[in-house]
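Re: beginner question about structure tokens

> Can someone show what the tokenized structure looks like for a real chain? I only ever see the sequence side.

Sure, here's an example I had lying around. Input first:
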Amino acid sequence: MKTAFTLLCALTVWGAMSIQPSLAEDAAPQAAETEPLPAVPASLKDKTFVNNAKLNTKAKVYFIYKSRSTCGICVAECPAIVATHKLMQKTKEAEIVMLNGDVDAKAAAKWARKAKMKFPVVAPGDGAGVPFPYSGANTLPFMVAVDAEGKKLGQANGEDVAKFVADWQKYLPDKDKKKGKK
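And the corresponding structure tokens:
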């Protein structure tokens, strides 16, 4: 009887061990179904936005824009940038994201609302970890075009930012350039 009991316990343990790999195999396809976000949208998914804009996580190009409401050039360039974003929204191939440099979220939200910014505006101080490979002078505003993985495609600062982003189609991958119409 003792031998039968020992044999039964051994078979139970062996059976439980043989079930475990099949459970792991079943779990693997579920994990593969949820694709991880590329670097840029992943770095932005947990950020606080001061406006109700929804981040386009499928864009091929991101224009990361540093600006603030107390900067005269920033305010002057903003209407052109907002107009360009409207064109981008038609194709969903590119996205503008502002890393706001105002003193607080209230000032940033007020400017976003007044300027009718429909692109995501990251709250002041919450831009850490967002790919921003800018290497120029620190003259506000400044902007970097990056692909979805954060590879730098171009940059501009000061009064050149609106003109830079107006040429957004040239930063799209070749096969997508024909989709973006002005």
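Each token stands for a local structural state, so reading them left to right follows the chain. The CA atoms of residues 63 and 177 lie 16 Å apart.
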